[in-house]
Amino acid sequence: MSHALLPPRLRSLSPVLPVVAVVALLALPVSPGGEGGAGPADALSALVVLFCAVRLLRQRRRPLSRTAAVVLGLPVAGLALAAMGAGSAGAGVAGLGRYLQIFVIVPAAVLLLIRGRPDFRLLAWSFVGLAGWQGTVGVHQFVTGTGASYQGEDIRAVGTFGPQDVMGMATVVSFGLVCAVGLSLGQGTVRQRTVAGLSALALLAPLALSFSRGAWIATGVACSAQLVLAGLRRALKAAAVAAALGVVLVGGFGVGSAMLQERVGSITQVADAPDQSVTDRYTMWAAALGMWREQPVTGVGLKGFPEHRDAHASLALSAGSDTAGAGSGFVRQPLLSPHNMYLLVLGEQGLVGLLALAGSWLALLGCALHGLFRVRRLGSPGLDCALVACGLLIWQLTDFLYADIGGPSTVLTAICLGLAAWWALAAPGTPEEAPSR
To answer: 262 to each of 75, 90, 206, 259, 267, how far by Cα in Å?
Structure first.
């Protein structure tokens, strides 16, 4: 059946609804004791890719422009080399599949399923909605003492992700906050911008209660960049509002003020008196650099960091991190990654892999910024989409300094890259109404 023969109601349905379903699926609780790997949302993302492929075949249209194919396909060469150098064929295939899913295939599918700015905004609002739900669960965990263990108390907000993925809620809330800030600074209706602005302010509380230093830094950098890109006057006004809200939340109501101050202060304690988590992270960073020095061009192979870690790590590395609370018992989790995406890629894929992946991300950012400046110069619609796309990219590239892929929320990284890819490679010049592509 061709697209033209479908009933009008079916034709009007947005093709990004399956992607929205992937986002919505992350609102469900993660089973306690899970390993934190691929989950139901990843399985549904595979069906989204299949849906996109079928849709392209029915419409008989060119999948990607030449520029989009080059930018999104750039990481494939480095990944293929690293997969061939993996310790085992199974590890190579598994690693290759995961990287292609997150950085190539799903982003390309999201790009192709977005028909115009309305579809883009629908996805952005779905991020805000998921962040609101996870943030509400997280605040409830802090208030009732049912969160993950933190300094001997079950108060860390982790949402439905559990203590095995303490970064899951922080990542979701950060994405939602960045989307809300971008939507509030655009040219939408007063009601839409007001709701988006209030949503962004509301998400500050669960982000703070996640006690995630990396998420705080990445969100601060991304939102500051969005405000500057939207205009200096707006940046100053928003900074004043955020500062006032921070004083009210932390100073006035005492929302975890002592622990938050200690956690914020620990960000700068990287040399004098770092805590064990910081020591472990620096030790694993050094181990990743050691692997790169051993195999500088192609690395030690995909999934090779755990196997080579002990040969390059110092005795300062602890046996693992302790997790408990939020419905789970005490678990000792091994440290199987350096918690730095750039160093993980450098150690496992070498310079070839890092240049390919980072080159793809920087090309996306450059094209996205070019589209944003074009929209501002011409005064055309789409500033909100541009700010969301650039904000998500900046957040992800900053967060990769302190984190890497892993856990159920990782599929959101792929969707974020797809949103950014649409704006960077397909959006400028498209009409407000979704075109038939």
So the answer is: 40, 44, 17, 5, 9
Mean pLDDT of the chain: 83
C-alpha pair distances (Å), 195 with each of 152, 190, 202: 37, 9, 10
What are residue 154's DSSP bridge partners? 149
pLDDT digits (tens, 9 = 90+) for 326-363: 666 666 677 778 889 999 999 999 999 999 999 999 99
**Residue 321: inside a domain:** no
Nearest residue to 334 via CA among 377, 284, 373? 284
C-alpha dist (Å) from residue 151 to 147, 174, 260: 12, 23, 12
Report yes or no: 284 and 320 within 8 Å, Cβ to Cβ: no
Q: Exposed e or buried b for every residue in 294-329, given b needs 16+ CB within 10 A?
A: ebeebbbbbbbbebbbeebbeeebeeeeebebbbbe
Q: Give a yes or no: residue 286 inside a domain.
A: no
Helix (H) or strand (E) holding 329: strand 328-333
Domain that holds residue 377: 3-28+38-271+335-425
Q: What is the pLDDT of residues 373-392, one digit of tens each?
A: 999 888 778 899 999 999 99
Q: Let me know if residue 350 belongs to a domain.
A: yes
Please tell me the total count of domains within the chain: 1
Cβ 157 vs Cβ 54: under 8 Å: no
Nearest to 335 by CA among 301, 264, 285, 397: 285
SS3 321: strand
Q: 3-state class of 238 per DSSP?
A: helix
Q: Is residue 436 part of a domain?
A: no
* pTM metric for this prediction: 0.89
Output the DSSP codes for 78-144. HHHHHHHTSSSHHHHHHHHHHHHIIIIIHHHHHHHH--SHHHHHHHHHHHHHHHHHHHHHHHHHHHH
